[in-house]
Amino acid sequence: MVGRLNHIGIATPDVEAAARTYATLYGATQAHDAFDMPEQGVRVKFIDLSNIQIELIEPLGDESPLTRFLQKNPAGGQHHVCFEVADIVAARDDMRAKGARVLGSGEPRIGAHGVPVIFIHPKDTGGVLVELMQCPKESV
Ligand code: CO
To answer: Residue 14's pLDDT is what?
Structure first.
């Protein structure tokens, strides 16, 4: 079983503009600076609501995996949800044993929070892209 919902990923053409919108409409706080993840082809900005963090992501570079998403959804949209797990490799093996598809090679990579993550194919979760993120055991 997975742990807590850690964050919701939202694709946007402009993380700073989206952060301002969430601050104005919903009171989201902006304690974190945006940063680039060139290997993932995304620019990221975390914003915080009272009980959840939102990961705003915009395409970075021509090969960004977000480019196609934004072609279909030019204003942006919900991109993924992220659940915490205690052991990313065990979670990956569990997903595969249950028939879910892990994106890419399946080797965990370091995500925007600096911890190992994997992604589960949206077709295996009713159209929702799911990120699993390894967190210290006490938080899961
Ligand atoms: Co994420």
So the answer is: 97
